[in-house]
Amino acid sequence: MPTTLEIAGVAKSYAGPPLFANLSFTVAGGLTAIAGKNGSGKTTLVKILAGLLRPSAGSVRVLADGQALAGDAKRLAVGWAGPDLAFYEDFTAEENLHFFARAAGRPADPADVRRRLTEVGLAGASLGRHVGAFSTGMRQRLRLIFAALFDPPILLLDEPTLGLDLEGHAAAARLVAAHRQRGAVLVASNDERDFPSPDRRIELSGVS
Asked: All domains of the chain, ordered by start, with CATH?
């Protein structure tokens, strides 16, 4: 059975009316578009699905073989990248990825890390540069690698092409296309090009 993301009755509010309420859906594979106007709660929803924010109501579960995952197993089953994902500025891209692998208790294969960097265009001279010297687009490419570093069955991408040039857009599209064939990808974006031919669509209307 595929790893499944199960959302039941999820709501989130801060002050005033909720951003969204009674969201219920199940994702087991393919590409899911999370769409909506600015301020509708797309980033908030993705962070709730990633376990970075608590919902005001409802539940989010990650199921494998029908059993709810918890702890490290749950964290490793979900990969996340968003605009506020930061890295150690005095480390290179490789050093950052090796650090995060060790922090997750996973081995970091230098050849695999370099392959992933090459796939998003962060090879050559970029390998020796500290992340503090990276452009906005280079940081975004590194975020995409971070999200997919352990090949999680569920991938959550918030504005995955933010700040990317045409080559970067193509790299992001390749990552999404490959992952949707073997797991679930949920993409939140204002750009319809970020979720071509989605298998399902979640439309957030925001606070009225």
From this structure: 4-203 (3.40.50.300)
